[in-house]
Amino acid sequence: MFAIRDVRALVSETTQEGHGLKKSVGPTQLTAMGVGAIIGTGIFVVIGEGAGIAGPAVILSFVLAAVACTFSALSYAELASSIPVSGSAYTYTYATLGEIVAWIIGWDLILEYGVSVAAIAVGWGGNLNAFLDAAFGVALPDAIAKSPEDGGIFNLPAVFIVLAITLLLVRGVTESARVNLVMVGVKLAVLLFFIVVALFNFGTGNFHPFAPAGTDGITAATAIIFFAYIGFDAVSTGSEEAKNPAKDLPLAIIGSLVICTIFYVLTAVGALGIASPEQLESSDAPLAAALDQGAGISWAASILALGAVVAITSVVLVILYGQTRIFFAMCRDGLLPQRLAKVNPRYGTPARLTIGLGVLISILAALVPLSEIVKLVNIGTLFAFVLVNIGVIILRRTRPEMPRPYRVPWSPVLPILGVLFAVYLMADLPLSTWIRFVVWLALGLAIYFLYGYKHSRLRTEPAADDGGTPGWARDSTPEVPPGDKK
């Protein structure tokens, strides 16, 4: 169960006919994927919550959250450049901690990404209605715009956006990346519009007192704002489709985090320059409220609502893309049905798998209550961060000779800090979230022992190799294959 996959064997499998993905994504598109996944409703909403806790010092909370994310981002960058294979944390764990741990994180990521897409799609429908109301004074009826949990019958907008993105992903990663690049440009333009307007109406009166709740308020706000940065890990799911993964993936992972941090901090400064922390906290749309009350621009609500719709659309695209690639990697390894890992010869994508996941998630978004299960997203992401940071430390010791185009500086200090920060945030999550997490993992382990363990390529293809490199189970020290004693 704790056998690991040899890195060279993992890479060689990406070239197998029918199971290899097309290398067609460049550094700009990869960076846009990271920005697309990070900047969603978080900045449009979470700034109000953070300001209510930390006051104007929420600016420092944004910086602190970015620093905390950087520890894990650096570890993702090293592993993504060293192991350019789909699967992200699942694949990295398979190469460092063993199959059973890889299954646990893969199963965890399937839930994390799937629930994220469903929840974000529901939010997309709500923001679409807000935009229609702000811009045209109309809105969709609740019966087809909300789930049964919220008093509706069927959330049609959520279903529409999931299925539309599914079809785009089936069409090809190049087309998907281009569309995402356009959407990222639009939402950054909307945030830039907000920043410029805020700076022209800027005042310093709302910055006193700067930290009314002291350092405790800053750290408490950081715990909330941290989740506005989550998404950079989705870039690593595109490792196999990157044209030059050794160079482009570290640039995209770290670059997207830097870009988002700059926009987040400038947005926070601008918002507090035109509105008080109390005004931001009391509104469900704090940026629109800041422009309305602070700058007197009431029509700006429609601009920001449009920005939110576009922002959420790109998040759905990147996160659903990430889930399909993780699921694809697990199927290709045999832990889930291998026939689902078949790549469509025309589009170069796992079309059958993508359509299946899209349909399931659209049903989830349309009908299933998400208010509680969505909390699993946070614990799942943090758990992945822990294992990726540990994976860097272990691989440095077990495979010191392995080529590393990018190396985490000051290892193992920075990876350990990444682990500690993730554990700190996990410990602060409610008990109910932990219980749901354990139940989901128990279900996953049952599937692993009933299906995955027996069908794993580590056991069904013991003789596979790539130029003499064993592809079957091995531990951290090379072994001689059975039957070959030379």
From TrEMBL:
Q: Where is the signal peptide?
A: none
Cellular localization per UniProt: Membrane
What keywords sit in the KW lines?
Membrane, Transmembrane, Transmembrane helix
Instruction: Kindly give the Gene3D superfamilies that the UniProt entry links to this protein.
Output: Amino acid/polyamine transporter I
Q: Name one GO molecular function term.
A: amino acid transmembrane transporter activity
Q: What is its main location?
A: membrane
Q: Got a GO cellular component term for this one? A: membrane
Organism superkingdom: Bacteria
Its placement in the membrane is given as: Multi-pass membrane protein
Residue ranges crossing the lipid bilayer per the database entry: 30-47, 54-77, 89-110, 117-140, 152-170, 182-204, 210-230, 251-276, 296-322, 351-370, 376-396, 408-427, 433-451
Q: Note down the stretches annotated as region Disordered.
A: 462-486
One Pfam match: AA_permease_2
* Protein name in UniProt: Putative amino acid permease
